[in-house]
Structures are given as C-alpha cells and as structure tokens.
Amino acid sequence: MANEIDFLELYRQLRVSPDCSLEEFKRAYRRCVSTLHPDRKPPGHEGYKNSRSGQRLQQLNVQYEAAMEFHRLHGRLPGAPPPSVVTPQRVNPPPRPPPPPPVMTQASSAVPRRPHVKWLIPIALLAICILFWGASAVTPPSDGGNDNATRDNDATLAEAPAAPTLTLGMSPENVRTIEGNPVEIRDDLWEYGPSWIRFDHGSVIDWYSSPLHSLKTAQARPPTAHN
C-alpha cells in the first residue's frame, strides 16, 4: 500500500539518488533483484529458498512499481527536483545612431530678441506671491498622526490569520483547500505521492507526511495515531 512505501529506503537499497536517470534506476533495480531472488542462489546457500529474501524481494517490487507510477504521472522519480524550464534570452536590438546635427541657416543663426523688461517685473512678483501663499497653506502633520499610523500597522499585523494546517476531524472540502487535489483516491484513502490522508465518515482520522512530499502539518503522524 502507498502508506507503507518509503522511497528513501528504496534509494538506499538500490544505492542511487532520487535525481538519477530512469535507466540508471532500472539497472540498479535489476541488479538488486538478481541478488535477492532465491532461484538464482545455489542449493545449500544460506539464502536459498529463504522466506526473508522473498519478503524483501516482494517489498522491493512494490516500491519499484510505486516509483514507476509516480514517474509516469509526474515525469520524474519521487523526491527528484522538477525539470527546469529554460527561457530564451531576449536579444536587445543595436542602438540607433545619433541624428545628424541641424543645419544652421542664416535665419536660425540670428540672435533672438530679448523680451521687454516691463513684463518681467509683474511675472516675478506674481511668482513670489504664489510661493508664499503655498508655504503658509501647507501644515506639517503632528507626531500623533505618525503614532496612530504605527499602531494601526501593528494591529493589522497582529490580526493577520495564520496559515491553515491539517487537523483531525477536517472535512474533504477543507483538505482540498489546504492540500489541493490528491494524486489518487482509494476508498477513504487520499494519496499525495508518498504521503496520504485517511477519512472515516467524511472526517480526517489519520495521515502520514513523508519528507519527499510533506503535508501542511507540523507532525508526520497525528498524536492519536496507532502505529
């Protein structure tokens, strides 16, 4: 069953890492099967027809089938990082050459006329009046306003709700909101890769959070779970 599969133990037994290639994973599996299969040991050998070797071989086959099913669904082995997507780099176009300088003609080279002085004095007085009026109309904020704003920000941060976590008694709708859709549903068992959640009459009664695909909970098993 998916709740008994430990992919870390599978990788340790095969002596490979989760990010190895699929061909390397298959070769390691075949090599391990050849060492555990009782029919490939000579008669009189201590491992010949050994029930313990048969149990280890059966457990290895179950773990291998689960890893291959995970690879079929996700395109990678359990615990391996997702494939990175290479984004093409954008090539900037070459800079445009600067425009040629304007051709100076006789009309444009002439010295511009200065405005009459009598128009400059009223404009300067009007600008000074506008500056004084604007400075007197602006009132600096008091220190109390800054304190109130700081207290409001602290209250907002204190009232921010914590992220929801998985708890016993949750309904399937709440579990979907926290963990998303499961990879597979088998009766009352929802599988999330190597992790799983068990229901009874529409309520969560047990779960297992694997380090390969952790659930949103602080504990790998609930405190009331019976091993």
UniProtKB/TrEMBL annotation:
**Annotated InterPro entries:** DnaJ_domain (IPR001623), J_dom_sf (IPR036869)
Q: Name one Pfam family in it.
A: DnaJ
Q: Where is the J domain?
A: 9-72
Q: Where is this region: Disordered?
A: 36-56, 74-108
Record has Chaperone as a keyword: yes
Ordered alphabetically, the record's keywords are:
Chaperone
Q: Where are the transmembrane segments?
A: none
Q: Which CDD domains match?
A: DnaJ
Indicate, by first and last residue, each region the UniProt record lists as having compositional bias (Pro residues): 79-103
Compositional bias (Basic and acidic residues) at which positions? Answer: 37-49
Protein name, per record: J domain-containing protein
Q: What species does this protein belong to?
A: Dyella nitratireducens
